[in-house]
Amino acid sequence: MRSALKLAALALAAATALATPAAAHRMWMLPSATVLSGGDQWVTVDAAVSNDLFYFEHVPLRLDNLTITAPDGSPAKPENVSTGKYRSTFDVHLTQPGTYKMAVTNDAVFGSYKLGGEQKRFRAMGGKLPEIPETATDIRLSQAQGRLEIFVTSGKPTETVLKPTGKGLELVAETHPNNLAAGEEAKFALVLDGQPAADVEVEVVPGGNRYRSKLNDFKVKTDKDGKFTIKWPEAGMYWLSASVQDDKATIKNARRRASYTATLEVMPQ
Amino acid sequence: MRLLVYAAAGGIAATPLAAAELLVSVEIPRLNVSEYHRPYVAVWLEGAGQKVTNLAVWYDLEMKNGEGAKWLKDMRTWWRRSGRELAMPVDGISGATRPPGRHQIAFAGDRAPVAELAPGEYTLVVEAAREVGGRELLRVPFQWPPAAPVKAEQKGESELAAIAVELKP
């Protein structure tokens, strides 16, 4: 019972963080390396939901919807998957040269209604809604589509995994996400269901904020074609996040919030 | 013998490159550290449009299964500019790591890779990365082909004591 409650709380925390990426709790994955040489390498990834980046101090990230795409587009398996008190971890054996994408996606529906003067709430994952009594009033439904990504390259960067899926909010990387350097500009775009996402605010937070007084975050906005440019102030790990709200939910009569979050490594020059 | 003749930009002189020579010296500092590993060193030329000509890459060639290639990416700039495009080891470029001291490598003007350099402005770039140590990158600009003997040096601060380029017309 207790562990079930804890799990539910975890799921809620994760889903809430996905639903509101601008909130205090940030959701992230952190790879041990993003640029590797020498073939046959491994990376290990931490995954958590926390306030400070990138420290595990709140709850682990649930890895139920983790997908890993190998450079040739085929799915790859995580190994040594474990979830602890504050973080989840998994390893990936990079058996192919090129760029891997690791993504945790979520699709949740949050609902509320009134029944006989009583306020009811529910949460449903994976698009399956609970039955709402016919006498219910003030029905409110909102769908949260979240995507959290990291990229890892062994050897020469490749493009296959960078193709967006066409579902929810996604990053289109004109500059390869494993080819970022301090002082340089990176050109990206956001797409919503595969279409340019114009006028969307993108928040960028550099890691390591536990040891500085200022968050040093900055915001950029996508242009009419969904494009945006980031000039990296210094080397390090960065957390990038954006979200949009619209009425294009896949659930009837629901509002949608689609969010995208990535951890990007910027190398020194 | 292959004789390459380039017309100088001003049209003043045509310079035969057969005898020309490009000498690069890399001085690896002696460091007083508890755990010392010889640095990985990459030596290359950057021409117009960041065109890269690799001259030397010193790394741990002898580890079994080519495991020494794991740290090639620590020469960050070299890795981005060209290293990741290569399948190491590369004949004529890769070599074993070198001990502290001054190391000179000579390139004849009539042989690859120098014979393939178009006349213009170049930068000699040397990047060193040391296991459990740091990374340093030094640059020395020069003109190729040289009109007169030239020597230019750049001192380093941490992982490289100095680098120099010497040009003989």
Salient structural properties:
heterodimer, A: 269 residues, mainly beta, Immunoglobulin-like, ten-stranded mixed beta sheet, five-stranded antiparallel beta sheet, 1 helix, disordered N terminus, B: 169 residues, five-stranded mixed beta sheet, four-stranded antiparallel beta sheet, 11 strands, 4% helix, signal (chain B)
Could you characterize what this model shows?
Chain A: It comes from Enterovirga aerilata. Chain A: This is DUF4198 domain-containing protein. Chain A: Residues 1-19 form the signal peptide. The complex is a heterodimer of chains A (269) and B (169). Chain A is mainly beta and 269 residues long. Chain A has a single domain, classed as Immunoglobulin-like, CATH 2.60.40.10. In chain A, 7% of the residues lie in helices and 50% in strands. In chain A, a hairpin with a 4-residue loop joins strand 7 and strand 8. Chain B has 169 residues and is mainly beta. Chain B has a single domain (13-168), classed as Sandwich (Immunoglobulin-like). A 5-stranded mixed sheet of chain B has the order 6-5-4-8-9. In chain B, strands 7-3-11-10 form a 4-stranded antiparallel sheet, with no helix packed on it. The chains are: A mainly beta (269), B mainly beta (169). Chain A binds chain B through residues 35-41, 155-157, 179, 181, 267-269, and chain B through 65-73, 76-77, 79-80, 83-85, 135, 137.
